[in-house]
Design goal:
By secondary structure, the protein is mainly α. The protein has a domain of 65 residues. Helix content is 50%, strand content 0%.
């Protein structure tokens, strides 16, 4: 079983909150179980799991890491169209952004 590198409770501890306050950082944590707080990330991970992870048996963590990274770079970012991006790929949006930046 894979474990998360950092447990969520680390981000809700009083010590962590005090450190953020001291650094002038405002903490944003929604209610437990509310997917709308981070809907884009939730959507990404749901797509990743449905299109890749649940359809593949990985012999090692290294194989999983490489395959998932390859999927993100070659499929998800480069060719998969996204409704939130007006049915453009993330790569198209990124390229348009860079073009606008260089023109400015």
């Amino acid at each position: 079983m894979l474990r998360r590198p950092v447990e969520f409770t680390n981000y809700t501890s009083a010590q962590f909150a005090a450190t953020l306050t001291r650094l002038g950082i405002r903490q944003s944590v929604g209610r437990t179980g509310i997917c709308y707080d981070n809907s884009m990330a939730e959507s990404f991970f749901a797509t990743l799991k449905n299109e890749r992870v649940h359809r593949t048996v990985y012999p090692t963590r290294e194989h999983a890491r490489r395959d998932i990274a390859r999927y993100i770079e070659l499929r998800y970012n480069a060719t998969r169209r996204h409704s939130a991006l007006d049915y453009r790929t993330p790569q198209q949006v990124h390229d348009e952004y860079l073009k606008k930046q260089s023109a400015a």
